[in-house]
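Re: the request from the purification team.
They wanted to know what the chain is likely to look like in 3D before they choose a buffer screen. I agreed to run a prediction and write the result into the notebook, where they can find it.
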Amino acid sequence: MRITRAVVPSLFTVLNMFSGFMSIIHASRNEFIPACWFIILAAGFDALDGVMARITKSTSQFGVEIDSLSDVVSFGAAPAFLVYQFSLHSLDGLGIFLSSLLMIFAGLRLARFNVQLVGFDKDHFVGLPVPASAITVASFVLNAMSGIDEFRIHAVDILPWLSIALALLMVSKVRYDTLPKISPRAIRKEPWKFIFFTLAVIVGFVTAGSAIFPLFLLFIVLGLVRYVGGLVRRLLHAGPRFDEEERIGQSRIDS
């Protein structure tokens, strides 16, 4: 069998899938801290497979498909089972339904992405990326397990709403930035994105993961704020145009 350079990014994709499987294994044993970290590790491998595909110039449709299949495991099934095992099992059938939303809507989000994909490099995502949703869930549980009382006490109350919100955001029209590309040209083009990403990684490591949840919450809120701001601007611009068109139409009738 001939081994090509396309194997390199696929190896990271397989490691992504394996990390998601390991998260499910640990969650089934109620070992929630390693279960959370395996989801975060899967996100790291998911980012690296794209980087390696660009470096080796081996981006392909096969890579897109296997990446999506891996993401369904690591960022759909794994976080869904994590929240169910951690807290939502106490809600019986309702808990099964609510936790499954993270998996179902992740699958829908990925299917939509593949269908609408034109080219392999994107400046933004339409809808919350599934790794961001999964890391938000994992970091929430991680903070709860690390002794932050606000998360632990209210986990049962917060997780159902968090699961619903993340599921809907994944299939929404809200735009979110992609990860910054590591190249001199990309850094010169959008230095603020690279700086913010670097600082976020450093803060995450320095705080032993406790800052990951608020950082991703900020990422989600900023996307929503920009989306709402865009809607308001479009409505304000549409108003004068509508009035002008109505005035022109009325003048034609009068003439």
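For the purification team: The first helix runs from residue 7 to 28.
Please add any questions underneath this entry.
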